[in-house]
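agent: user wants the structure for Cyclic nucleotide-binding domain-containing protein from Mycolicibacterium vanbaalenii. delegating to structure tool.
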Amino acid sequence: MTALSRAGQADEHYRGASVELSVVTTALRRWWAAILLSTWAAAAAAGVLTGTQEPVYTATAQGIVSVGNPADRPPYVLSSGAQYILDRMTSYANLGVTTPVLAPVVDDLGLDETPESLSGHISSESVVGKAFVEVAVTYDDPRSAAAIADSVLAEMSDAVWELERGNVQLVPTGAAAPPTGPSNRKIVINAVVAGAGGLVLGCFVAVGLAAMPTRTRTRGAEGSRSARGQADG
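agent: tool returned. relaying tokens verbatim.
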């Protein structure tokens, strides 16, 4: 390839990039009103949908898993026991959505639920790399959500103690606080996220519409040059 041909290709690439940039700027200038409309519509729709949802409340109870009766254990047992606990944290957390744990919760609190339906309101997770369990309960009443979270964690504590024969314990760090507001009424956040999505979508559509005639003209020009080349040949 000669230096002249390489220079020609570079110049053509530069012109192509300039054309693409001009298409984008032209599209944004031409369709700015539609882009703003799509942004506003997406944000408004998200805000309305969020605001009309039935409010639900999320309460969280937390607990620490450790070796049972640590004062009576030698140091080497505490060390090896800590690693043993970390290896089983996921299993301990999963107890929070099992029937043996939730059935007593339903009975003790007199809930109009089954263990299976109640599990849909509960998220029970462990913190990676830490002997820490978190139970989050989402319910239609803030006090009920807190009471369920505390009861689930208490039943998990009993289950861990029984399964590990007293060698491992789950100790709650404190009572769950009733939430002060709904957890599904984040109107501003949802509206901003949806508005950003509407903005991006509007820009893509506008650029696509503006680029279509340009691409058609480019194909036509390439076809004409090819035809002239064949005729000259």
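agent: one observation worth passing along. The chain has two domains: 16-52+186-232, 57-172.
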